[in-house]
Every structure is written in structure tokens, then in C-alpha cells.
Amino acid sequence: MAANSIYRTEDFEFDFSKKEIRFFRKGYNYTTISFTEVNNIEVRRGSTVRNVWFLAIITGLLILLTIVLSGNLFERLNEVGNFAPLNHSDIRRIGANIIILASSLFFASYILYAITRNEVVLKINRKNKPYPLKELENVRMQEQFYKDLNDVFPFIKFDLNLGEN
User: Fold this and answer.
1) Are strands 157-158 and 41-46 parallel, antiparallel or unpaired?
2) What is the DSSP letter of 85?
3) Do 109 and 125 belong to one domain?
4) Which of 13, 23, 76, 101 is the residue whose CA sits 20 to 30 A from 61?
């Protein structure tokens, strides 16, 4: 492919023939940057999550909820003696505690996974959000995209650990 090619992902489109970058939200073009407006461009490993602290607080609250609910569950199970039968409301409370406990633990672990997952991202002008390059990797156009980027932007910064997972 020549340097006049077009690389499109779900989040952005590099059009080397028109010398512009178009950014998308839900498939619609919300901003366009000319190549002359690009001051800094980086391809590196990083997280695509932007609100890390907010998600870390939510994760902490979910883990705290899990601890409180598990304590409540053990207390409820210890109240019931060996000879006292469980009534319907006790069984419903225990079941609800188990379901909420499992779901909050699942959501907390998924949020932690999303925060710590590193993938190859493209960052333009340092103020824009990082854009994942996974789609280009899936169609095996990532190396050609890097070459075209390096031809147009000689000041581009590449992470040295791009090939490692």
C-alpha cells in the first residue's frame, strides 16, 4: 500500500491522500484534524481506559460491598442452629446475598481487568484519548500503518515493546 492509503477503525480514520485524521463517535465524524495540526503522535502500549481513578474507587466500593455481604451471609448462616428449620424468608435472604455477592465480585474483577489491560494504542497531540489499534492488527495492516505513519510524521514515537504481549 502506498502512502495515499486510508486506514479506518471504529474510532478513527487516517486518510493519507487527503492528509487528515477523522475521529468517530458511534460511527459519526465528530472532529477532523489536518496533518499540519499534529504536533505529537505516539504508538505505545497503554490502557484505553480514561477514568482510572473513578473506576478504582468503584472497584474498591464493590469489594467492600462483597466483604460486608459475605460477613452478613456468614452471620445469617451461624444464627441458624442445627435443629432450627429455615423458613422461606431466610432462604430468600441467603440466596439474594449469594447472588449479590457473586455479581459484585464479578463486576469488581472485570473492572480491574479493564484497568490493567494494556494494548497497542495511538495517542495524538497528548490531549486526545488513546485509540486502540487492535482492529488494524486483526486485519494485519498494523506494520504498513506504522511505515506510512513514519513516512508522514518523522517525529513519531514508537514503544520498543510493541511485539511483546
Assistant:
1) parallel
2) P
3) no
4) 76
pLDDT grade for 67, boundaries at 50, 70 and 90: very high
Residue 61 sits in the same domain as residue 97: yes
pTM of the model: 0.65
Structurally, how many domains does the chain consist of?
A: 2
Q: How far apart are CA 63 and CA 101, in angstroms?
A: 9
Q: Which domain covers residue 59, as residue numbers?
A: 52-116
pLDDT digits (tens, 9 = 90+) for 126-156: 766 777 777 777 777 777 778 878 877 777 7
Tell me the C-alpha distance between 22 and 164, whole Å. Answer: 29
Cell 474498591 belongs to 60
Cell numbers for 114: 479493564
Same domain membership, residue 32 and residue 61: no
Task: Quote the pLDDT of residue 80.
Answer: 61
What pLDDT score was predicted for residue 83?
Answer: 58
Confidence of residue 78 (pLDDT cuts 50, 70, 90): confident
In a domain, 1, yes or no: no
* Residue 96 within any structural domain of the chain: yes
Residue 8 DSSP class: E
Q: Determine how β-strand 20-25 pairs with β-strand 28-34.
A: antiparallel
Could you tell me if residue 165 is inside a domain? no
- In eight-state DSSP terms, residue 37 is G
